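Handout, page 2. Input:
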Amino acid sequence: MGTDPFFIKWGLSPFLLCLALAGCATLPTDFEREESYAYAPAAGLVAGENFKRELDAHPGQSGYDLLDNGLDAFVARAVLANRAARSIDAQYYLFHNDLTGRLFVDQLLKAAERGVRVRLLIDDMAAEGRDLLVAVFDSHPNLAVRIFNPFSRSTPRATQYVTGFGKVTRRMHNKTFTVDNQISVVGGRNIGDEYFDANHQLVFSDLDVMVAGPLVPDISRSFDLYWNHELTYPISVLNRTPVTLELIANSQQELEAFVAEQRDSDYLRAMRESDLARRIRDNDVDLYWGDARVVYDHPEKVLSGQDAEKYHLAPALREYFRNVREELVIISPYFVPGKAGAALFKDLADRGVRVRVVTNSLAATDVAIVHAGYMRYRKRLLRAGVEIHETDTKARATLRGSSGLRGSSKASLHTKSFIFDRKHVFIGSLNLDPRSLKENTEIGLILDSTDAAREMIEWFESYTDNEAFSLGLVKDDRGYDQLRWYRLEGSDPKTWRTEPHASFWLRFVVGLARILPIESQL
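Output:
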């Protein structure tokens, strides 16, 4: 391929020109960012009345329900949005324009039509090319949409990844949904079909917590921090295309037609027949009760150095890891412990703590490059006595988080949970990898609940016994440790010598990535 004469004339390579252009990338500054905050919880609202009797019976405690089924996780959001009376605050890393994304938008719009104030905060990572669509949504008087840490709209994103490395590469990974400042849903799910059992190509095993009680205002305070932060921009400031009345009307008609077409679909039929929907409507949801706390990164983390731990949630979790006495269970789709983490797990194992981990196999992961970081630590952890399991991508709809409504051609783990001594449970958006701990912002709940811990342990043991590989080491003829993957297929034990179900090309590329110095970005 020849070189453009322009670059020859000025002595610039295309790469350097990209840097020059990106260096001029700017964001608007001539606007006022109007502050707003969560409404104080009010008595008599429908959403809060769902759990009022139990809240009164458990003063000072929070009630929570584990949403381990993709369909139920969407039903919870839809039913709560339908029952909202004053406010909905939603914060997500990814928001897809697919079936569940459109159904979710429809619920938010219907709430806004009833006079509910809706605030939607989205990270800009996957919002490219959708400013106008989002701005149309934002045009409703009771609806406001803001974008966190936006890319400049005047320069290609690819160049900004280079010149803005360390800023635009740091994202808001939080996922929260709060109605009337009385009930919240927090966990690992973004808004998209693969998270809610509506994608026949891919199903994510994921987990959310629906929570009521004194914990909810703390979640709202977290939302307000992000909503009013300097890194958050109203979509109306970023969008460059006029939003006309005709465009608004056409968009509304298209959405209404789409929802009408889905009315008799398998998915909406399953939603209507959902046992959880009935139980929420009938005030018949059994909750776990106990002390709980919300932990989250401050949005200032994105603007600060990695050592500015006063903005990090990691210190709050660190003591739980260090103080484990008998058992630690880790469920993390992306697991890159780093040298410090590997040393910690070895120390725990040396003290007699049983450490068990389940993460994605290479074939099951949706971010293969992260597997390169994880691969560096497998043998070290196994030698230390850590038990490691990896998701079998062939597990399909048997994963936690699947309702069995649809089969899938690929299963992948997306749950982020840690269980400490069967007493304390963390559930949230945090993966055990450097990107979550140091780069992105995250949120999660720590539940002091033996009941929740027992439920999580029961799933872990059933899943790792039946739907995941167990890893082990064997000595080869030269005395070197070699990895093996073990799993029962039916009643027959089977052993793999290489990454199960992963192609040669995938293994080759990820193998090469192991030598790159990119662990901090994984």
